[in-house]
## 1
Amino acid sequence: MSSPMTPGIAAGRLPQETLRNNFSDLHAPLTAHEAAVAADRCYFCYDAPCVAACPTDIDIPLFIRQISTGTPEAAAKTIFDQNILGGMCARVCPTEDLCEKACVREMAEGKPVEIGRLQRHATDTLMAKQRHPYDRAPETGKKVAVVGAGPAGLACAHRLAMHGHDVTIYDAEAKAGGLNEFGIAAYKSTDDFAAREVDWLLGIGGITIKPGMRLGAELTIESLTHCFDAVFLGVGLGGVNALHSAGEDKDGVRDAVDFIKELRQASDLAALPVGRDVVVIGGGMTAVDAAVQSKLLGAQNVTIAYRRGRAQMSASTYEQDLAASKGVRLIFNAQPVAIHGNGAVREIELEYTADDGTGLKGTGETLRLPADQVFKAIGQTLTTDAGLVLEGRKIAVTGAGRTSLAGVWAGGDCASGGDDLTVTAVAEGRDAAMDIHASLMGSN
Amino acid sequence: MADLTTTFLGIKSPNPFWLASAPPTDKEYNVRRAFEAGWGGVVWKTLGSEGPPVVNVNGPRYGAVYGADRRLLGLNNIELITDRPLEVNLEEITRVKADYPDRAMIVSIMVPCEEQAWKDILPRVAETGADGIELNFGCPHGMSERGMGAAVGQVPEYIEMVTRWCKQYYDKPVIVKLTPNITDVRKPAAAAMRGGADAVSLINTINSITSVNLDTMSPEPSIDGKGSHGGYCGPAVKPIALSMVSEIARNPETHGLPISGIGGITTWRDAAEYISLGCGNVQVCTAAMTYGFKIVQEMISGLSDWMDEKGYTSVEQVVGRAVPNVTDWQYLNLNYVAKAKINQDDCIKCGRCYAACEDTSHQAIAMSADRTFSVIDAECVACNLCVDVCPVENCITMEPMQPGQVDPRTGKVVQKDYANWTTHPNNPGAVAAE
């Protein structure tokens, strides 16, 4: 039996019981009493700021009032009408930066209405009923291909199916769900929620999922546009940026997304190896998810090194605090310059940075941290442009996700604009679906 | 989703939620917004006779009573009927009704208790194309001092007389709005019925002073240091209104008379309760004034969900369902025995049940050193006070005892058969059991 002190990369650092607690729900579901008290705090604001702050425009005051009046299923319908992945968003949305930040009670008392947890209360209640709450319109005979079974693709497919179109979803992975299934910290999506949500969503009917199909390999834009009336690309960002530091190829250096993916699919967390000294390079949600989960698996020392300051970190203050509360150390203004070790990583060398107004530069001063595992979380990239015009490093879109190629739409992380959030991907998928629907029906 | 389409007095509306005659329905701008928000109908703010309109005070018109967190529980007002010219209101009513033919449009009227006054205004209201009229016999302030509003509603003979005039000079449905500022609401309701009213609506507002400013010693709302009683409404008046509605619904003389329920309706559940006690539809004001027109969306979704869950396919099926269960105290089953039960998993150990029971009731709750609260069945009379003061819903419940069990308080076996006060041995006027 190993422990947090065991050198190198080792499995089973913590007892099963501890692991179970560590990876249980970050926020337990609200009890009926808690939900009643929390819902009671909503003022039912006019033209509510929380709604304006929600990328999917959920009518938050209405759904909270519906919880208050004992109709959580009506509340869930209000949520799903705008966001069919409202269940997952209730778990993973950075509400502290979105609806809850805008809540008038945040301004009044520094304590917003617990919108995220109330949303979960409502959606969990309806989903537990097992019956899919939407009916499909009569079949239109139109066929749409959706590439990518992540939040954008699923939201798009559901909306299209609801309008009677015949949808085929292709996904590179063996399982649907995209980042919901493979890329989010386990304590935010417990009890196989991502997979259960996909099953529930498919209850609409008219959607076929074909796994193991990758754009640029098994699939081409040409064949898709040939076989379908419209195509939606929600392929996400499958590639990972390189550090470009010496020693990046040493054993123990890996992509944070791979680690998270492995963890999410692990049947036995005690069998999952993790380093004693873990260093995560990056400043986004992926960095925090990898760091916190390393700590929860039993790593003795976990450090996030970010090349800019705290204010520039794309992980929210809430996520930074979560990391700190779990014992993760955050180092700011430090960038990797070299990874040392004889075969396997033993140390990482960081250089302090400063921005004098002409861009971020190394100061020449370095520090070394012990590291037997280094996770790279410095951003993801598109794996194929599929021959479409790009904007920056993403597929260029205009309006509701229209790409440079007629009949091809894109949304979610792979498309330009947006902020790489689950909820934004859902909004983009949904809006593209409505545009596809209008375009298909208009052509009749 | 259940179909909420409601036909009341032959007037169809997409749902049973109408806005009551009040400030929200005073002009075209508001009423159009209300219809866009989903309201099934409106009762236009009360019109007066032609000529110089009434004037309102230029200071506060409303006073409030709050619950925790400044939740508005009761509102009173000293506003009068519309202070806009009759002609303007009639033109607006005509336009709005033409644009929203599927919504109910009722015009509230209050003119002097003279036949000519009604004879003058009714044809003009008829020309608007409105679906019916509501006679404002209820406003307790201002207009009542001039012999209108509640001053009429408090005299059944006047109600009957004016209603008869309206039925004579107007072809469409006539609804009589009743004041609660009387002793027995069955009398004005019966008078309205005798006068030929198609329906009654109730309650109008209740005489009230919401508070007193202890610095200026003026009642609120205060106008330059003086206050007048106003009309009280909002969630706080609902129990009073429900009781009055039920009295009319179960009174043999007025049973079957259509009722439009008014008084503190804030949620779908309030509406369903009014409907179950005999109302064909409901009218709302304070909830809209507190939360805006959008509040109707919750009422619609909630009522629809509840009807689906219960298997009701029309609002009509719910109307009056609870009326047979409203009875006199003397007919309540004295053989029914219940005991309070505290769910220890839900209990947060605040001790409010204990304080209520120990200090003011039957000393039927025990408190242990570790703040565990439990019911002493031998003392519990099932008064329900602990349930009412408990902050956690359903933490304390009333559990009926089963026939054959011995009630530890009385030592008597719980009887299966129904028995009430009329046959009870302690009743000097008891009817001998056969």
## 2
Amino acid sequence: MCLQLHAPYRLKRYRFFEIGQDHYYYDDFQTESKIRSLATLSYLPTNCTLLEMIRSSNGKFKCAIAVSGVTLELLEQYSPEVIDSFKDLAETGCVEFVAEPYSHSLASLMDENEWEGQLKEHAAKIEQLFGVKPTTLCNSELIYSDEIGEKAYQLGYRTMMIPGAKNVLGWKSPNYLYNHISHSKLKLLVRNPKLSDDLSFRFNDHTWENYPLNAEKFIEWIKNIPAEEPIVNLWMGYETFGMRQQAYTGIFEFLKALPYYAMEQEMGFILPKEAGKKLASADMLTAPTPISWSGETKNTTAWVGNDLQQEALQKLYAVAERVRLCSDKSLQHDWTILQSADHFRYMSHTDAFDTNYDSPYEAFMNYMNILADFLQRVDEQYPTTIDNEELNELLKTINNQEKEIERLEKELKATRARKEKKEKK
Amino acid sequence: MKALMFGWEFPPHILGGLGTASFGLTRGMAQQEDMEITFVIPKPWGDEDQSFLRIIGACNVPIVWKDCDWHHVQERLGQFMHPDEYYRLRDGIKYDFRRIGTNELGCVDFSGRYPDNLIEEIGNYEAVASVLAHQLDFDIIHSHDWLTYPAGVFAKQISGKPLVIHVHATDFDRSRGNVNPTVYSIEKRGMEEADHIITVSNLTRNTVIEKYHIDPAKVTTVHNAVEPLQDVQSFTKTPRKDKVVTFLGRITMQKGPEYFVEAAARVLQKTDGVRFVMAGSGDMMNQMIHLAAAKGIADKFHFTGFLRGRQVQEMLAESDVYIMPSVSEPFGISPLEAMQVGTPSIISYQSGCAEILSHAIKTDYWDIDAMADAIYAIVKYPAMYKSLRELGQHEVNNIRWYDAGLKVRNIYNQVINRY
């Protein structure tokens, strides 16, 4: 079971006259009220429930949590009690914090190096707060392709959660452990779309044939899965608990009852990292094009499907290299936040979940105005008149200088040592 | 089903959007196989397209019994109707209308426009309706806009057939709230007598409910649509260095031209390579010329004067952005026309068409910052332009009069079943 938590910085209404004048892009009030309401309605009660589940089951209940770096930042700022509750969970040892890009970005689709950087940044943040380094990878929105898997393997990840897309699985069941097409050591856990969505979307649907759903029934379903299928992976957003399914629906009671019924049926809970080690891989899976958990088609159209999104992403990632080179902290921070997948989802014509704009066009306009200002600032640091290659050359020289200095220093040390020796003699 | 419709305008001789909407709707409805439409207008010119309906000119219907010769009638009315038809209608004169001035055929000379003695003309039109109601065979009466409500009501009283009225605009839209009591009373009486009311947008529907105190159950919205352009390809966009932003319509208070000038000034403060065009004429035109000059943007702000026919589509096709900042617009068909030729549109939330368009930018009419921002985004960000152009065109091509006609037909059926 894996819970995913991400809340973005909300961008403020930014008109084009402000380009070049105003470099603060965020609507703090909106961000704060959103975070606070999420914290009270969802994050805190969910964490509290999870803790109770762990305690009442004597540590038999286990789950993984994916929380993005920017969300941690926001929580630290606006709702530090949530961080504390995460720390409590971390102490039990029954919770695994998994890795994901720091700002819940789409970098895995756009820019490999940026993706790597964000994963590292995120890992450092998790380690700093909870004292463990994440080893399982849950990419933003579970986006996965062979290429992304390859890169993840090179970065040292050995377990990865991927979406249960029909075009990838075919006739295969999501309830096995799989591996990457060319690296048998990279294990893939497949999200069970049916059971996960039952909780996320259908739990309180009165028209659903299985309403009302209770823990007993849910465990019964899992029990009826053929015995040779070893693992069921549930992956849901935190907002499922307390926001999408509000407390009155009994979702928290449902959770609390889960371990009890599971143990009655002799089922256990397992952390992704343990699953990756314990279970044997059934087969390999190949995903030539990127897939995500979203929608019926499980592709990435909700984020990169239309012209607006493509344009915004391309303009943004065109300066990736330059931003990484510069040392301006606030510029780098803005860069991270502007990459959050949410901004692009608001531009979707079909699936703009949780948008605060009236239309995708408005989302695009606002984002592009902000981006225009941001690009100007990048340009001030590294003028576009110097092209990337030239810049690289220059930077290489600078970087090489460091190495050169190091080498010379070593030499100097060696000479000094020799000299001292001589003197001793 | 046979419908008797009362209208005021019909293409090609039109003065406003009412004629276009009447034409589109009747044509869409005529595609239903069992639909027969008789459309009454004050004064036909003889070049109206009668392939899908029958047009009767009120100016050719006798309301006072005059003894006249067959050949004379043939000579006078031959191009509009058969003399026998004249005699048949003459038998329908049941009331004494001799107080109304008529010609030697007993017919009234209508101007077919909006003259100063409009109220009198509306009354005469009502007299014509009484004759028609006695002599024609129909199942339902449909009145377009307030000028024809009295006629519809009278026809209903005589024939006992149900009346549907079509609200294309109310006096609240035309006068920014400063209503004319005579017009209001005509509108209100029509609405009260009607068996059902069709409005062109939810915006108008709310006005009808709130300002005229009509039972909401009696009011249904049927959004207007747009006639497909046969020759979209023939409208081309000349490549230009500067982007063109266009306002097109009557330059009057209702259309909010001053907000366009203000937004233009905002855009030009920050960027160049954009030109603004105000096409059309109206009572606020001189005031707008002054305003543009006072803002110091006259070098980038152009006036074209009144455009007619094909010039309208050509102007729209040449533009990069079309903007309609109307203060109160019951529907507003021109953004749809702009989108047909692939021009992105910015419209105000106070326009009825905003209810059915999703691939157009919407702002409040007074929010010049948002308007300026939208203009800037469309001219500066190619993806925005491309998306609005392609998806907008696709969207508009799916808004068909046929579907609107089906909705109206549905209302007919309901009303008749209840009757």
